[in-house]
Design goal:
Blueprint lengths: L1 H9 L2 H22 L2 E3 L5 E3 L1 H12 L3 E2 L2 H15 L2 H4 L3 H10 L4 H10 L23 H14 L5 H4 L2 H13 L5 E2 L3 H26 L4 H4 L3 H6 L6 H33 L23 H30 L2 H18 L5 H7 L9 H4 L5 E4 L2 E4 H25 L5
Antiparallel strand pairs: 1-2, 3-4, 5-6
Helix pairs in contact: 1-14, 2-11, 2-14, 8-10, 11-14, 11-15, 11-16, 14-15, 15-16, 15-19
């Protein structure tokens, strides 16, 4: 019966169009993700997989532990390059030649801009071109020091944003990060983190459309009388519809995300899988002490739970309202409306917005935020809380859908 329900879903022209859109989205995401830019020693830009491999080779030369000696070496090399005739030239090609010489250590250079900044919230791209190699010894300690200074400064608003237990929690997580940091080329993971959330959000929308009509279509097709009057119409057949919806979401989600992950990592390399995400400038402030591979695993699992929850919500609305349009629309509202509210409101509103299921679809972005929640005296980050919360909510929702649909009355 489940296979029959799956055939009914994909027998619709709209579902076939959605599958074509899904394939196109997957292809475009892969193309964009592997389209890495590299500047050669003549100042000419290249892009694509071949360019990514050249960039990878240069960054691999700087792989290793980011101890004082390595930081000093990066600072000295950067100063030599910055003071070269090409960097000082007014000609764009000369500037590109100077830029090409710094591509290999560019990730570490960006970390130095973060670590040696005067303020926690401040970022100056050109800071690394001004400081002395003598500051290299403060690289690791500065991350914790800047956080503490930011929290202690009343003008920053940190006290309003974070309670004292939350502040102590963040400091403890910062201090727990193993230093000195291990660095390696992480271009493949970086591209996954950038383009993966786009794919997962679009998957949530498309999967919601596919399963949104599983229950309501019986009424739209005027087959509800036959369905409910059959021997298993209010029992086994309803369970078959539920199983079909879960199977469609599971199969398409993992097929799309695993194909995307495999293609990007095969093209760009999986180097740096065991390195902490803090070696990426964008995640320097993250309090989640995860490796790139662990963070991507959390992203995929969280994305699946988010897609499944939104799909179940669509099926519940479909079963309760008999409307496919409402079933598809409500999950989309939950995905997009919070974006218009994220910049306003007080602390309570931001806490509530941080608990919405759309955050599960964009976990790499949540890894950068200080979204903390107190539960029974424990402080937990949203990235750890949300998957557990929505996995727990999905289980009773299955029962609710089943009970709602099997008791439907014919009109």
């Amino acid at each position: 019966m489940m296979r029959y329900e799956i055939k009914k879903v994909f027998g619709r022209t709209g579902s076939r169009i959605v599958l074509a859109i899904l394939a196109a989205v997957l292809l475009l995401n892969c193309i964009f993700a592997v389209n890495v830019t590299y500047v050669d020693r003549n100042g000419d830009s290249q892009s694509g997989v071949a360019a990514a491999r050249k960039l990878r080779a240069e960054k691999k030369e700087w792989a290793g532990v980011l101890d004082e000696a390595r930081i000093r070496e990066v600072i000295e090399e950067n100063l030599r390059n910055w003071n070269s005739p090409e960097a000082r030239s007014s000609e764009l090609r000369d500037n590109e030649i100077a830029y090409s010489r710094g591509q290999g250590y560019s990730d570490i250079r960006m970390l130095c801009c973060r670590a040696f900044s005067g303020e926690y919230q401040e970022f100056d791209y050109y800071l690394a071109d001004r400081f002395s190699p003598e500051v290299a010894g403060r690289f690791d300690e500065n991350r914790v020091r800047l956080l503490k200074n930011w929290m202690a400064d009343e003008s920053t608003g940190a006290a309003e944003m974070l309670s004292l237990p939350e502040q102590r929690f963040l400091i403890a997580r910062y201090e727990a990060l193993e230093t000195p940091l291990a660095y390696d080329y992480f271009g493949g993971w970086s591209q996954l983190f950038e383009y993966g959330p786009v794919l997962i959000v679009l998957l949530a929308i498309l999967l919601g459309y596919l399963v949104g009509g599983i229950f309501s279509n019986e009424f739209a097709w005027r087959t509800d009388a036959v369905f409910f009057s059959s021997l298993h119409g209010r029992g086994r057949a309803v369970r078959a519809k539920l199983a079909a919806g879960v199977a469609i979401v599971t199969a398409l989600y993992w097929a799309a995300t695993l194909i995307f992950s495999a293609l990007v990592l095969l093209a760009l390399g999986a180097d740096g899988a065991d390195c902490p995400i803090q070696i990426s400038s964008g995640y320097w402030k993250s309090f989640y002490n995860l490796s790139f591979a662990q963070a991507w695993g959390v992203t995929l699992i969280g994305g699946y739970i988010g897609c499944l929850f939104l799909a179940l919500l669509a099926m519940l609305i479909s079963a309760a309202s008999r409307s496919t349009a409402a079933a598809v629309l409500v999950p989309m509202v939950l995905i997009f409306v919070p974006e218009f509210l994220s910049d306003g409101g007080g602390r309570l509103l931001q806490k509530l917005l941080g608990l919405l299921p759309e955050n599960l679809l964009t976990l790499p972005m949540m890894l950068r935020q200080f979204a903390l929640y107190a539960i029974g005296g424990w402080i937990v980050g949203s990235v750890a809380l949300l998957p557990v919360l929505y996995a727990a909510l999905s289980l009773p929702m299955l029962l609710l859908i089943y009970r709602s649909y099997r008791k439907k009355e014919l009109i």
